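Let us work through a complete example step by step.
Step 1: write down the sequence.
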Amino acid sequence: MKNVLYVLLGVFVGFLLGGVMLFVSRKPAGEPIVLRAAPTSAPIKVHVVGAVPRPDVYELLEGARVQDALDAAGGPLAEANLDGLNLAALVVDGQQLDIPYKDGVEPIETVELPGSETATPDPNAGERININTASLEELDSLPGIGLTTAQKIIDYRLANGPFAKIEDILNVSGIGPTTFEGLKDLITV
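Step 2: predict the structure and record it as tokens.
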């Protein structure tokens, strides 16, 4: 009789464990969690003119500041007067930023005459090129720097901010110690 009791007890415990297993392994009730892509802000367009090396229309992320637009245009020229600008102000879509010149400084307009070639900066003329504000053409005029490397210099300073010293140009991909030796007397920050 004890054997029958143990068998019945075993069957009961088996059913009980089976029921617990079914309860634990059933599908959860309710709505499934759906992951959505993070919301991204739409780009805005800002027209930067005045005392910048590359005046143009630039596409920036919503929430960009005047400083971001200024950096996109290549930074301010040495003749720029930033005292009246709030560099931390937000820019809005369709805004025109006119970067003013210092008092008494007039913008130099180049007029291309038929049959003439546009002059490029001559790094041997004694004036050093500021790698924080130089345009693509100015950087391209440096020995050992082509258009691709000039664009890398501009991209680097946009991503990392202005160069603190001329040796920082070694951080730009494609510029090694040999190239730097040929540049160090021609550039400044």
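Step 3: interpret the result. Residues 43-99 form one domain.
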